Amino acid sequence: MIEIKHKTTGAVLYRSETAIVLCDCVAEAVAEQANLRSANLRFANLSSANLRYANLSYADLSYADLSYANLSSANLRYANLRYANLRY
After folding, report:
1. What pLDDT digit, counting tens, does each position of 50-86 carry?
2. Chain centroid offset of residue 86 CA
3. At 7, is the pLDDT very low, low, confident or very high (cuts 50, 70, 90)?
4. What span, in angstroms and rounded, lies between the C-alpha atoms of 68 and 55?
5. Is the model's pTM score more than 0.85?
């Protein structure tokens, strides 16, 4: 089981019983249109993840590996992308 939690409250935003790695959990959450606003994804390996249309506003993506991730139409308003790898 993998959980995606709120960056300040620790509340569970999304829980996957089937994902093996965080990248799969995030992709599953996005596919189910889960709201990942304010998610704690610090240091997450999201390389090549499909984050199209994801609501990642206010999310902490600092130090995350977003290389080759599909971020088209993703809401990244006020997201912390400090030191994130955004190489494409």
Report:
1. 999 999 999 999 999 999 999 999 999 999 999 999 9
2. 13
3. very high
4. 18
5. yes
C-alpha–C-alpha distance, residues 67 and 37, integer Å: 21
Contact (Cβ atoms closer than 8 angstroms) between residue 66 and residue 45: no
Q: How far apart are CA 42 and CA 73, in angstroms?
A: 21
The Cα 58–Cα 71 span in angstroms is 15
Q: What one-character DSSP code corresponds to residue 80?
A: B
The per-residue pLDDT of the chain, averaged, comes to 97
**Could you write out the three-class secondary structure of 27-72?**
HHHHHCCCCCCCEECCCCECCCCECCCCECCCCECCCCECCCCECC
